[in-house]
Amino acid sequence: xxxxxxxxxxxxxxxxxxxxxxxxxxxxxxxxxxxxxxxxxxxxxxxxxxxxxxxxxxxxxxxxxxxxxxxxxxxxxxxxxxxxxxxxxxxxxxxxxxxxxxxxxxxxxxxxxxxxxxxxxxxxxxxxxxxxxxxxxxxxxxxxxxxxxxxxxxxxxxxxxxxxxxxxxxxxxxxxxxxxxxxxxxxxxxxxxxxxxxxxxxxxxxxxxxxxxxxxxxxxxxxxxxxxxxxxxxxxxxxxxxxxxxxxxxxxxxxxxxxxxxxxxxxxxxxxxxxxxxxxxxxxxxxxxxxxxxxxxxxxxxxxxxxxxxxxxxxxxxxxxxxxxxxxxxxxxxxxxxxxxxxxxxxxxxxxxxxxxxxxxxxx
Length: 364
Ligand code: SF4
Ligand code: FES
Fold this sequence. Notes:
The chain is of the alpha/beta class. The protein has a domain at about 5-225: Aldolase class I (TIM Barrel, Alpha-Beta Barrel), CATH 3.20.20. It contains 15 helices and 10 strands. The protein has a 10-stranded mixed β-sheet with strand order 7-6-5-4-3-2-1-8-9-10. α1 links the parallel β1 and β2. α1 (about 40-50) packs parallel to α2 (about 70-80) and α3 (about 95-105) crosses α5 (about 130-140). The chain binds iron/sulfur cluster and FE2/S2 (inorganic) cluster. Iron/sulfur cluster binds next to α12. This is PqqA peptide cyclase. Keywords: 4Fe-4S, Iron, Iron-sulfur, Metal-binding, Oxidoreductase, PQQ biosynthesis, S-adenosyl-L-methionine.
C-alpha cells in the first residue's frame, strides 16, 4: 500500500459547553467507553508521526475541556507534528494560552457564531461571546497564527458583511466562512439551517465585495455548502487516502462523520496499532481507491479527482454509502437533493417557529 496519511484529526473529547445547532459531534456513538488518557494519546501521536502524518488538528467537542491539554500538545509537538488547536475559545485565558504555546502549539482556530452576542447566543445555546473575545486577545498577545471560523447558515448568512467587518476589527489575518455541511446534528436540523437561494446569492456578492474592500487586510476563505454545488468535493481527499481521525474513545475513522454509515466496523487504538488500522481495517478499505464504485462514477473521468464525493452524504441521503454522492449532477439521486432544497425553501418559517423543528445535542 503506497498511500500515507498526512493529517490526523484528534478529537480529544466530545464534551463542550456550547450546543450549536450544527454541532459536528456524532449523533450516535458507542456509549460507556472512557476517553483516551494522556498516555494513550501520546502513543497515538507517536504512531501517527511514524506513519508519516505531518500535522495534528486537535479538536472536539471542545479540546480545552481536557485538563491535560498542555500535556497533549506537548506530546504531539514532541512527536514532530504541527499542532493546530480548533476551539470555541471558551477557557482560553492568557495564562493558559501562554502555557499552550510553551508546550509547542503552532496555531489556533477560534469559532464565532455571529458578530453580535444575542444572535451568537441563540445559535450556540450558551453565552460565550465575551470568552471568545478574550481568547482572541490572548492568542494575539502570544503571537500565534489565528484563524476565525464562522459556520454560515440561515440564521447568520444575512450578516456576512458585518461578520467580515467584525473579523477585520479583531485584526484577524484569516477568516473562514464555512457554509454548514449537512451531516450529524446539522443534517437533523437542515430544514431550519438551509439558507434560501436568494440568501446564497446575496452572500456570494457580499464576500466578493468585502474581498475588494479589505484586500491585503484579511484573507477571506468562503466555502459553499455541498448542497449548493453541482459537483462533489473530494471528501477527505479520498477515503483512507490522506487523513485519519481518532475519536475520544480511541476508534479510528476514515472521516469524523463515519459513524453515519451503517454496518461499518471501526478498530480501536486500544486494540490495534495505528499502522495496522490504516492498512488493514475494514473501515479504511471499504471505500479506498476506485474499485468499490458504481456507475456513473466507475466510468467517469473525474473518479480519481473527486473519488465519487462524500460517502457519509451518500449514506445519509440515499441509505447506500456506495452510490455516487447525490450532490453530483450525474448521480441518479441528484433530483432527490434538488427536491429537498426546494422543500426547505418552500418551508421557510419565521425564526421563532423554527425553534420547534430544531434538535439539540442530547449528550454532554
Ligand atoms: Fe465525481 Fe462520480 Fe460525479 Fe464523476 S459521476 S463527477 S466521479 S461523483
Ligand atoms: Fe464522511 Fe465525507 S463526511 S466521507
